[in-house]
Amino acid sequence: MSNLHATKTRLLGILFLMSSAAQANTPASNSAPTAPLPANEIVVEVAGTPITRGEIDRIADMMAGQRQRLEIDVMGPHSLAKNPVVHEPSQSKRQQSADAATERASALRKQTQETARDKLVEMELLYEAARTEPPADLTERLAKKMADKKARFVSPKHYENALKGYGMTEADLEKFTRKEVLIDHFIAQHFLDKAEVTDELVRKFYDDNREKFKSMEESRHLAQILIVPGKGQVTEKLNRAAEAKAKAIHARLRNGGDFEDLARKESQCPSARHGGDLDFVAKGQMSAVFEKVAFATDKGSISEVFRSPQGFHIVKVIDIKPAEYVAFDKAKDGIKQHLKSMASHDAVDRFLTDAKNRTKITVVAPGRFAASTD
Fold first, then answer.
1. Does some domain include residue 370?
2. DSSP letter assigned to residue 21
């Protein structure tokens, strides 16, 4: 269960993008072509502190890079192929498709820039409060944070290339990281450390979310007898014959027949030579229909005859290992930290709402994002 620093991750995830960039040498480049706008153009001012287009674009590029790497992780490396062709479309169709793709990319880029702008505003509001309360060991924390970021890169050359790719110098990164350290300290001092979580709440969370603390799924020691209708194209006649045979074996078992002996003689499963023994099986290891029956049958009992794509089955449940859970004593500290983080999450939201209401925030260049040429 994720439990640490949820507040910082949600509100200030942008601060950690530079660390994530260690996975790439250069920023993502699959966004729509944009008309260049001056990087030093001021987009928004927070209490007189400017946030420039260059800063917003830098964060937006990092966010796009993260999104692209996530797409590759989830969909595979071919998900970003620019022109997967199944058949040759007409010229007009190709143009329509290209126009639609450009429009989607432009809209996504604009949305990413607006998100980056809003995050930088939130960061500035928190920094404005945090900068007057630096930790006593600020220099040491900053040095460690910078060292950690550099260590995530494969080599110093990759680190230098990433900085160049995002239009940053090491001094820019250090300035950015200093804000991160100050804001981390401010959130910890004013929100995380002050969040009240009682032992009763911790226990209730554990009891109400028992499944989150499962360390091992229930497993069952099973044996089966399988009757296969035939190979290749199976006729209805063969199906009826196989089912009749399985039901006859089931009747013999009900009348005291030995499961292991009948499995050895009659089953067409490779487990027949072991008396049908399948050993312990956990959920997810067998077909859905097999699992449904096996996990609904009582210990020491045999199932009714049931059909699967493989044939007709009879399952015996020899033993059951119940699911295992992380003990409360081992989980409670993590739960408490998680609940404190959730409580501080709400407190930071309230802080930002109040800060936005009492701080002069001026949008200097509204709507000047993506492919805008005005």
1. no
2. G
pLDDT along the chain (374 residues), means of 10: 40 42 40 54 89 85 68 45 50 73 83 88 93 94 94 92 86 92 92 88 95 92 94 84 96 96 96 96 91 96 95 96 94 92 88 93 70 35
Identify whether the C-beta of residue 263 lies closer than 8 Å to the C-beta of residue 226.
Answer: no
> Alpha helix (H) ranges present in the chain?
6-12, 17-20, 53-75, 91-130, 138-151, 156-165, 170-187, 199-208, 236-254, 259-266, 288-294, 328-358
Are residues 126 and 30 part of one domain? yes
Q: What is the model's pTM?
A: 0.55
* Alpha carbons 245 and 232: distance in angstroms, whole number: 19
Residue 364 near residue 43 (C-beta atoms within 8 A): yes
* Residue 29 located in a structural domain: yes
Instruction: List Cβ neighbours of 122 (8 Å cut-off, separation of 6 or more).
Output: 11, 12, 352
The residues, ordered by sequence, that sit 6+ positions from 238 with a Cβ below 8 Å of its Cβ are: 229, 230
Q: How far apart are CA 224 and CA 263, in angstroms?
A: 7
Whether residues 278 and 302 fall in one domain: yes
- Can you give the length of the chain in residues? 374
Supply the range of the domain harboring residue 268. Answer: 218-322
**Integer angstrom CA distances of residue 185 from 13, 122, 127, 129:** 15, 16, 10, 11
For residue 274, count other CB atoms closer than 10 A to its CB: 15
User: DSSP labels for 32-62?
Assistant: PP-----TT-EEEEETTEEEEHHHHHHHHHH
CB burial of 124-138 (b: ≥16 within 10 Å; e: otherwise) equals: bbbbeebeeebbeee
- Please indicate, yes or no, whether residues 22 and 118 belong to a single structural domain of this protein: yes
